[in-house]
Design goal:
Structural class: mainly alpha
Strand content: under 5%
Largest sheet: none
Number of strands: 0
Shape: globular
């Protein structure tokens, strides 16, 4: 495994372009977690604040330029804000998928060769979430990583930032092995056997997707099952994103994938909210509303 965090270019003039490619790629959430894991970055916000709101607040004047020309439109100091607060990149990804201009569309099309790796990338992200350990084990993990860092002889040219990324990548690499020990989840949502390769075309195809979501989603499930089905729906989006969607016109297929990425981001944010102690009832209400909108959109596409 070549940890994504280690691929940040040494040349800072290349950072903006590299980050642009991550924003339209499938592994941004993994990259953000690698940065946060051992860097001591506090990703918590005030209850009334979201990362999207923080993005808009910090880049009020620059956001239109970013959506038009990418992160290269920022100064070095402005760009470093995204490295100090990596979840701003996730908020930017959502903005780009909804409002990005031709520049981002070209980058997105150039990233479509990632279809084959999409399946493994979501498994890595799922493994990292699923293997969240008790506080004592986490302390041992941090101590072991810190010991490794103390006993290593860093290259003189390595910056403090890249040292942090190395530590995060070591932890992420250890978690990667757990992927192969995870039991396969029940096939449902977009993972239903034969769903995304159906011979149906146009609206009949998208209606079949809508039916699968509505049929598998249980609005009144138990708290434990709610978390499981939320995770299953989030992860099943990768199946749709990796499909060629030959049943749809290219324009509709691209539109559907853009929407699917946004849905996936929203489901991940809900899981993060549950992990940080947000009431299950509130997250469930938001999830049910999003699933209703998702089913409506799928029923009308094609």
């Amino acid at each position: 495994m070549n940890p994504l965090a280690l691929e940040l270019p040494e040349d800072q003039s290349l950072w903006a372009t590299w980050l642009d490619h991550q924003v339209v790629g499938p592994d941004l959430r993994l990259l953000v977690r690698q940065w946060e894991l051992l860097a001591g970055i506090n990703a918590e916000l005030f209850p009334e604040e979201s990362w999207e709101q923080r993005l808009v607040a910090q880049f009020t004047d620059q956001l239109p330029k970013i959506l038009a020309f990418g992160l290269g439109a920022l100064s070095s100091d402005e760009l470093r804000r995204f490295l100090r607060q990596p979840r701003l990149l996730l908020a930017l990804q959502e903005q780009v998928f909804m409002n990005g201009g031709p520049y981002w569309e070209r980058l997105s099309r150039s990233a479509m060769h990632l279809d084959e790796s999409a399946g493994s990338s979501y498994k890595v992200r799922a493994a990292i979430r699923e293997t969240a350990q008790p506080a004592v084990k986490k302390e041992h993990q941090v101590e072991a990583s810190a010991s490794l860092a103390r006993n290593s002889t860093p290259k003189p040219s390595r910056s403090p930032l890249r040292t942090v990324l190395m530590l995060a990548a070591v932890a992420a690499s250890a978690l990667f092995a757990v992927v192969y020990l995870q039991p396969k989840s029940q096939s449902r949502f977009f993972d239903r056997t034969g769903l995304v390769v159906s011979s149906l075309e146009g609206r009949e195809f998208t209606k079949s997707l809508a039916f699968a979501i509505r049929d598998d989603w249980k609005a009144d499930s138990s708290d434990a099952e709610f978390r499981n089905q939320l995770r299953s729906l989030r992860d099943s989006c990768e199946r749709l994103l990796a499909a060629d969607l030959h049943q749809l016109s290219p324009a509709v297929a691209q539109d559907l994938k853009i929407r699917c990425r946004k849905w996936q981001t929203s489901f991940s944010q809900m899981l993060d909210a549950l992990d940080t102690g947000r009431p299950v009832s509130r997250v469930r209400q938001e999830a049910n509303q999003l699933v209703d909108r998702l089913v409506t959109v799928l029923s009308d596409l094609g």
